[in-house]
Backbone:
């Protein structure tokens, strides 16, 4: 990534996730690409963010929050009484 400003970041990840990243890395290497683990993680993060367009609800697989109305406020929550 020559010419692009970067910053070093460290993560603690579950071993199962590291194993999944390693399998993905092996698959990429098997296709003739020689990427570092850093490149693979960057690729996966970029893909996830691009794919979801930064939509947290989509990333987490949850319902999106209600849209704001014309005044810029979210509709008030209605209480349900039994």
Residues:
């Amino acid at each position: 990534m020559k010419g692009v400003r970067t910053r070093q970041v460290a993560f603690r990840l579950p071993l199962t996730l590291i194993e999944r990243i390693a399998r993905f890395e092996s698959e990429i290497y098997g296709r003739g690409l020689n990427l570092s683990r850093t490149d693979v993680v960057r690729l996966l993060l970029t893909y996830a963010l691009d794919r979801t367009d930064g939509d947290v609800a989509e990333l987490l697989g949850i319902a999106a929050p209600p849209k704001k109305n014309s005044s810029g406020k979210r509709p008030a929550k209605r209480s349900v009484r039994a």
About this structure: The chain has a mean pLDDT of 84. The CA atoms of residues 29 and 35 lie 7 Å apart. The two ends are 59 Å apart (CA to CA).
